[in-house]
Amino acid sequence: MFELRDECILCRGSAFDPVWRGRFDDPDVSRFLRQFHYSSDLGCLTRQDFNLVQCANCGMRFHQRILAPDWIDRLYSEWIDSRQIEAFEKNVADTDVTRAAYEQVRQDIKHLLRLRDTVAARTQGPIRLLDFGCGDGRFLRLAEMLQFESVGVDFSASRKERAQGTGVRIFPDLGSVSRASPGAFHAITLFETLEHLVHPRETLGALTRLLEPGGVMIVTVPDCRTPIPPTTLTEFHNVHPLEHLNCFTPATLTRFVESVGLVPMSRKPAHVTTRLKDVLRTEASRFWQPKTTTLYARKPAENGASNA
């Protein structure tokens, strides 16, 4: 049911320091799990252990004991379904659903405006965008509205079901994308995806190869500078031992993208609304950008310049 990762996902070191160890049927852990979007009985996890470690060499944190591939497929195809996702988002993720939805759309549009401003000069046609881990395709729909040529990848059957009938193109893997939409992409996005991957560095490297020289990648992950053991649902979600296999901080995320040849870059201001508070906050970002686990990075141009 579980398998062991015996080398660091970043530097491939083999010496680890323990961070958080426990069992899925520990009272606090099982209480958190019951609040998540699982439609199946998780009794099969009784007496099963998890083990969050930190690499003694580079400081990367990751869960060493993870679900085997067939169980990961079961997690995303059977345990998580559309009904449970909607219930979780409505009742647990944010009590003010309207405000949360507005803020999410606002941030998504800012990402798209920044991408358009950054890469539009490099192409005479539409900006080709790949959203890896696209879920139900919400970001793809916004991208299409702004005249991006966009495709997505998601391996969760339940999330893809939610996108049916919306007109967005979602594929199960990168091979399917390359066959259906050959050529390099001007922009690639990974929103809350890298933490779920068994082989995150290999996947990030494959995506980098699909990015054209000078192209931009946006990566967001949960910020795992969180108390251990977690005491709130948000803290638990950041280091979720079933789903969030890789636990990033701003420093380790930066080293991660640099390890595949990408160059971190500053985010350009992007105005979405004319509300004074939003305008001031956006303009302030010209002078100060706190370290977060939202990272923009560029693939160096063929002449070696990053154009950052």
Notes on the structure:
This protein is of the alpha/beta class and 308 residues long. The chain folds into 2 domains: 2-85, no CATH class; 95-220 and 262-298, Vaccinia Virus protein VP39 (Rossmann fold, 3-Layer(aba) Sandwich). The protein contains 11 helices and 13 strands. The protein has helices spanning 27-34, 69-79, 82-93, 97-119, 138-145, 157-162, 174-180, 200-210, 233-238, 250-258, 276-284, and strands spanning 2-4, 16-23, 49-55, 61-63, 65-67, 128-132, 149-153, 170-171, 185-191, 211-220, 246-247, 263-265, 294-298. The strands form 3 sheets. Strands 8-7-6-9-10-13-12 form a 7-stranded mixed beta sheet, with helices on both faces. Strands 2-3-4-11 form a 4-stranded antiparallel beta sheet, with no helix packed on it. The longest helix is centred in the middle third of the chain and has 23 residues, at 97-119. It starts with a strand and ends in a 10-residue tail after the last strand.
SSE layout and pairings?
Elements: E1 2-4, E2 16-23, H1 27-34, E3 49-55, E4 61-63, E5 65-67, H2 69-79, H3 82-93, H4 97-119, E6 128-132, H5 138-145, E7 149-153, H6 157-162, E8 170-171, H7 174-180, E9 185-191, H8 200-210, E10 211-220, H9 233-238, E11 246-247, H10 250-258, E12 263-265, H11 276-284, E13 294-298
Parallel strand pairs: 6-7, 6-9, 7-8, 9-10
Antiparallel strand pairs: 1-5, 2-3, 3-4, 4-11, 10-13, 12-13
